[in-house]
Amino acid sequence: MSSESFPSSPQEFLANWSASRGNVRRFLEDTAVPPIDDESQREAGQAAAAAAVEETFGIDLEEFESGHDSVTGAFTIAGSRHITTPDPDIPQDTQAAAFFDVDNTVIQGSSLIMFALGLARKRYFRLSEIVPIAVKQLRYRLSGSENAADMQSGREQALEFVKGKDVALLRELCEEIVDNSMLRKSYSETIELANMHIAAGQQVWLVSATPVQIGQILAERFGFTGALGTVAEEEDGKFTGRLMGDILHGPGKKHAVAALATIQHLDLKQCTAYSDSINDIPMLTMVGTPVAINPDKPLKAEAERRGWTVRDYRNMRRAVRTWGVPALVTAAFSLAGWKRLRKRSK
């Protein structure tokens, strides 16, 4: 075996291994070792991949594979790796990307409860079926922090509800929910941040526990690269009620971002991540530039302790909703004028 044929880094090894999933023997025989028996090649491949995953991302191979399933599932549903094609006039920074949480980072409130209520209005669910999810989301809104167990059980209940449902119909309803309920709740300041990354030639990904269809429609509407989310398995145009990969909450986001970075050849040190929740610390700590947006109290404290940038758009959005932009502009000019007059009188 020549030294030129063996991957020069754990990242390169993982990229090749990910591309060869389902045919690990070919990968090993082409790049690492002579032909070997089934059991030996399986053990060698697993051990080498596990070591590379641990060194690169600090997670185990099972977690990486689960993230990989989430990413490839999202690609399959989208029909391609990228939802939006990059502007050919913008030089692309192929190793950099920005990852955005959705709830209270890109849009105000819970995308899951908007999703569930929107489907209930169309009689896709019965109201009694979404009450448990609504109670958990209300608990989140009142406490200001997410509960991982509640989030996971809510998604599992949703998966059971969609079992046997028509995939095309759900996609159609998701588009209606996004257009009628979610876009108007977006934080324009966050969208501007995302557009700055796009203008710099970087990829922009939504990473959320919300159903991947919702994330991908949001990404399409905003012109982002793509979206990762919770992926419900599809078969013959119907949902099976099974999950593909992780529920993308907490560590699940880290697993999916690790897989995406491997597939897309991203350098996470050159990447940025944005979130409002302490539960997203695993994703925030894996990138070079973590940013807290509209943070809950635990994340704000952690961000300040670590010296991370903190941005809070909640008060501005509340003020605009209450008073309107013209009134706020008038008030700002009035305040500035009052300060100048006060300064002159001293």
Structure notes:
By secondary structure, this protein is α/β, with parallel strands linked by helices. It is built from 15 helices and seven strands. It has a seven-stranded mixed sheet. α1 crosses α3, α4 packs across α11 and α5 packs antiparallel against α6. The N terminus is likely disordered.
In short:
The protein has helices at 10-19, 24-31, 38-57, 61-78, 111-121, 127-143, 148-162, 167-182, 188-199, 212-222, 251-264, 281-284, 297-306, 314-323, 325-345; strands spanning 97-100, 203-211, 226-235, 238-244, 272-275, 289-293, 309-311. By secondary structure, the protein is of the alpha/beta class.
Question: What is the element layout, followed by pairings?
Answer:
Layout: H1 10-19, H2 24-31, H3 38-57, H4 61-78, E1 97-100, H5 111-121, H6 127-143, H7 148-162, H8 167-182, H9 188-199, E2 203-211, H10 212-222, E3 226-235, E4 238-244, H11 251-264, E5 272-275, H12 281-284, E6 289-293, H13 297-306, E7 309-311, H14 314-323, H15 325-345
Descriptive terms for the model:
globular, alpha/beta, disordered N terminus, 346 residues, 12% strand
